[in-house]
Amino acid sequence: QVQLVESGGGLVQPGGSLRLSCAASGFTFRLYIMNWYRQAPGKERELIAGIPPRGGSTNFLDSVKGRFTTSRDNDKNTVYLQMNSLKPEDTAVYYCNAVGRPWGPGDSLRSYWGQGTQVTVSS
Q: What is the pLDDT of residues 2-19, one digit of tens each?
């Protein structure tokens, strides 16, 4: 059974930090791109960043560049989103998403989602 479980959300004051985790199970984590999305009330879900299967550099949403970083531990089947200098406009439900073709280019694209974790930035 595929599972993605986010944790680490909560209420934080502006300028504060949070570290989100997403623990994966039920699929071969190391073969998947891991993405972080967020969705604020009344807005569409937006892609924050994606980290390749082996880690490394990634592109970030412009509004979070320089403040957010992402990393993964393939031994622990976990991806992280470190969020610093948080702003009220970062308030949203944050989701992790796994995307990949584990059996190679001819395989169908598989996509799995976590249930989301709420991040609220407010004084």
A: 999 999 999 999 999 999
